[in-house]
Amino acid sequence: MPYVEVEDGIRYYYEDVGRGQPIVFIHGWGMSRKVWERQVVDLSEKFRIITIDWRGCGESDKPSHGYEISKLADDINQFIKNLNLDKVILVGFSAGGAIVMDYVTRYGGEAVIKAVSVGGPVPRYTSTEEFELGIPQEVVKETVDALKTNRPAVLRNIADGTFHQDVGQPMKDWLFHILLEQSWFLEKTMEDLGKIDLRGRLSDITIPVAFFHGLHDKNVPISLSEHSAKNVHNSKLVVFENSAHAPFIEESQKFNEELTSFIQFPNMDKIPGQIQ
Predict the structure, then answer these.
(1) What percent of the chain shows pLDDT beyond 70?
(2) 139 φ/ψ angles, rounded to the nearest 5 degrees
(3) Average pLDDT over all residues of the chain
């Protein structure tokens, strides 16, 4: 089974399909590489598709530490180095989008040449008096507290609330069972999501970034991606009008087409905050 050690004794499980330019997919909070099924199947004829289970998720190791967003971004950096990847496209969903954005503010331009945040809670997930676009801090605290007392109920709500379209109960059950594989310590990542603030680092991003977001997303307000796209120099926003939090599932064909277009389009140098 393919594993990469990202830290002494901590291994990431991954799957590697196809040939060509590498796209590394990073799933959302508590999920696994399995959510990228339609991307693996549809894009592996053109690209090398690498899907990972991050620390505490899926088949990767589940230690009691290292669940901060910045640490997970460090893990991704080590993963890319250990596989000797170059000219990487980095794609992250939800909390994975926060990991991607933290990564590109510190490591972008080394091995990763473009990045995509899909429904990412960036630049800041929670609202403040001077930043009203996020969700209330109390919501994050309530979620963390509920994870400690009734984790299955929280995961069930996440699975059921991910979609806008009527995807059917089997799809929701599938996502719920993926979430059940997570580490008991992942509440630490949820806590950290309530604290991170990348607003002051958006100007540090030197590579092209696309923000993909479902119009009906109730988990992460689309206003966050709108804000980020306007404040990242070399960026664009793509809105999925028939999706909520997971457009790569609800509108997989459009998602894959938009991703392919973003990868193949020349770098958008000196074009601030394109909106699409």
Answers:
(1) 96
(2) -65, -40
(3) 95
